[in-house]
Structures are given as structure tokens and as C-alpha cells.
TrEMBL record:
InterPro entries: CBS_dom (IPR000644), CBS_dom_sf (IPR046342), KdsD/KpsF-type (IPR004800), SIS_dom (IPR001347), SIS_dom_sf (IPR046348), SIS_Kpsf (IPR035474)
Positions of the UniProt region annotated as Disordered: 1-29
Span of domain SIS: 60-203
Coiled-coil boundaries: none
Keywords: CBS domain, Repeat
Source species of the chain: Ficus carica (Common fig)
Name the record gives this protein: Arabinose 5-phosphate isomerase
PROSITE patterns hit by this protein: CBS (PS51371), SIS (PS51464)
Family affiliation: Belongs to the SIS family. GutQ/KpsF subfamily.
Molecular function GO labels: carbohydrate derivative binding; isomerase activity
Length: 350
């Protein structure tokens, strides 16, 4: 008995792969287009500068300056990114600040607020639902609320203790929708106020550096020579009566490119470098076998103290008439206690 013919549902036909969407052609971007956009953004920013209410800004800045608690920032979307960044700037300037997510706040994080704190709400429209829901809860905690908005008569300004209006002519976006100018003026406003607080609090360079220990700024203002120098057990030392040829291993093995010539009490007499070795060999030939380190060393080398800033050591190495690769470190009694090298400074991030 023959088999029944397969139904159409049982048949499998090869099919072509789905078509990939074709890339849409783009209009060219030329220098003139970019220049016009930058000039337009400049005009929008100038509108902000011309129309900013300085009395509002002064009241805002003084309120932050006299804060007895933590200054919290909040916002949604792009305004939230700006709020977080401004908070981080203040933290780096030794101001007690933090970012409070409006969503997380309504799920427990609002417990961090106290009556001593300030909560600053960034919103272009002032009608952001998440922030409006946060307001009564923050008020119940006793925090002082400040709105920073760009639309007059908005709901957020009406329910906060203070409002700062950031004048916005329009967004650079051709549809006046993408928040590119509004976030720019929020950032300019917040960071400028942060610097005003920095100056009012008389923050020193050293205090600022303490908050940036891993960066080059911090290292240049915190690190001293004693922090980056090689210490006594790592030093390539010899006595002035030692023969040059007997000290070649010491000269080359310590990675300093020199010998530090000392007396019995570890006082520095001079230095002898690998460059001095080459010059002596060229001038003396076989006579080098009889020469002592003391006869050929530099008895007036550049030196530095252990409490000098490391960045100053680098400047001293690079000073005229010619750069050097190391500086012996001596104490106030001319006792050798270390050596700082250019390689060591660079390795430390300076």
C-alpha cells in the first residue's frame, strides 16, 4: 500500500535568509555646519549668562555654604547625570555631598536624609514625576529642598523651599527636544557654584591634593622626596680610595647609573656616574686601572633634602646647565640617606 502524500504543512522548502536592513544614506557634515552649531550653542549659553538671576544664585550658594549636614543632589535622566557629577565635584572639594536616586529614595534610601541636610532637585521642566513624588517624603524627613529648573511656574518650584531658575533660550536640537543646552547650563551653573564654595571655604592646594592621592595632581602636592627615594640598603656606595675598576659591579648593579662616594661616617663626598666612567676610560686608557673613585668623582653634585616635594626634585634634575638622572638625598648633617632617580619619579606617576 502506497504512502499518503504529505500535506502542505509537512513539507519543508528551502527559503532565503531574511533581508538585512540597508543603511540609510547620510548627509555630509562639513566645517560650516559644525561652526554654525557651535555658534548657536554659544548664543544659547550667552543667553543663560545674560539672564541668570545673580541674587537667586547668591542665595543658593550661601545656603550651601552654611549647610550643617550633607548636600544631596537628585535628578532623573540627563539631569540626574549632571546632578551626580556636581555632587562628585563638591566631594572632591571636601564638601559633604552625595547623589540620591529619586527611585531608590522611595524604596528605602530616603532614610539617609536628616533635618540638617539639603536636597537639590535638578529638572529642566520642573514637572518630573519621580521628583514630585519624592518631595513630600523628603519634607517629612525635615530636609531643606531646592529646585533648579528652567521653566517658569513649574510644579517642582511651587513645592520646594527655594528655586533657582536657569534661563534657557532653547535646546540646540533642531526639534528643541534633546537636552543638550539645558544640561550644559546645569553643569556650568553647578560647577561654578562649586568653585565659589571652594574659595569661600579657603580650600588649600594641599587639602585639594589630599582628596586626589592617586592622580598626578595629588602626587605632585603630597609626595615628598623621602616617599620616592631609594634608601640606604639600596644605595650604590663606595669610598673615595676605592679603585674605579673594583667598583664596576656596584656601579652597574643598583640601577642608579652612579656611585655615591662617602666617608666613614656616611657623609657624601661626591658622585661618580657611568658617564664619568666612559670619559675617564677615553682619557686615561689603561691608566684607569690605577685610578681611585675619589680622583675622578664630582665633588659638587646637585643634592636634595628628604622633605622637599618630589615634584621639585624633578625640576632640579631638569635645571640648566644640563639635566641629571639622579639626586643624592642628604640630611641636615650632610649624611647620605637616599637617592632619588628620574626613573623613580616617573614610575611614581610624577
Amino acid at each position: 500500500m502506497g504512502s499518503l502524500p504529505a500535506s502542505s504543512s509537512d513539507l519543508h522548502f528551502p527559503h532565503s535568509p531574511p533581508k538585512q536592513p540597508q543603511p540609510q544614506p547620510h548627509s555630509a557634515v562639513d566645517e560650516s555646519t559644525l561652526l554654525n552649531l557651535f555658534q548657536s550653542q554659544q548664543d544659547h549659553l550667552n543667553f543663560f549668562f545674560r539672564n541668570l538671576d545673580l541674587s537667586q544664585t547668591l542665595a543658593f550658594t550661601r545656603t550651601l555654604l552654611h549647610s550643617r549636614g550633607t548636600i544631596f543632589f537628585s535628578g532623573v535622566g540627563k539631569s540626574g547625570f549632571v546632578a551626580r557629577k556636581i555632587s562628585q565635584t563638591l566631594v572632591s572639594l571636601a564638601v559633604h555631598s552625595s547623589f540620591l536616586s529619586p527611585v531608590d529614595a522611595l524604596h528605602g534610601d530616603i532614610g539617609i536624609l536628616t533635618p540638617r541636610d539639603i536636597l537639590i532637585l535638578f529638572s529642566k521642566s520642573g514637572n518630573t514625576d519621580e521628583l514630585l513624588r519624592l518631595v513630600p517624603c523628603a519634607k517629612a524627613k525635615g530636609a531643606y529642598l531646592i529646585s533648579v529648573t528652567s521653566v517658569h511656574g513649574n510644579a517642582l518650584a511651587a513645592v520646594c523651599d527655594m528655586n533657582v531658575h536657569l534661563p534657557l533660550q532653547r535646546e540646540l536640537c533642531p526639534f528643541d527636544l534633546a537636552p543638550v543646552t539645558s544640561t550644559a547650563i546645569q553643569m556650568v551653573f553647578g560647577d561654578t557654584v562649586a568653585i565659589a564654595l571652594m574659595e569661600a571655604r579657603n580650600l588649600t592646594k594641599e587639602e585639594y591634593a589630599c582628596n586626589h592621592p592617586a592622580g598626578r595632581i595629588g602626587k605632585s602636592l603630597i609626595f615628598k622626596v623621602r616617599d620616592v627615594m631609594k634608601k640606604q640598603d639600596e644605595l650604590p656606595v663606595c669610598k673615595e680610595n676605592d679603585l674605579i675598576m673594583d667598583q664596576l659591579v656596584e656601579l652597574t648593579s643598583k640601577g642608579c647609573g652612579c656611585l655615591l662616594v662617602i666617608d666613614e661616617d656616611y657623609h657624601l663626598i661626591g658622585t661618580f656616574t657611568d658617564g664619568d666612567l666612559r670619559r675617564t676610560l677615553k682619557a686615561s686608557g689603561e691608566g684607569i686601572f690605577k685610578l681611585t673613585v675619589g680622583e675622578m668623582c664630582n665633588r659638587n653634585p646637585r643634592i636634595i633634602g628628604p622633605d622637599t616635594m618630589a615634584v621639585e626634585a624633578m625640576k632640579k634634575m631638569e635645571a640648566p646647565p644640563s639635566a641629571v638622572q639622579f639626586l643624592p638625598v642628604i640630611d641636615h648633617q650632610n649624611t647620605l640617606i637616599g637617592i632619588v632617580t628620574l626613573h623613580g619619579l616617573v614610575s611614581a606617576g610624577l
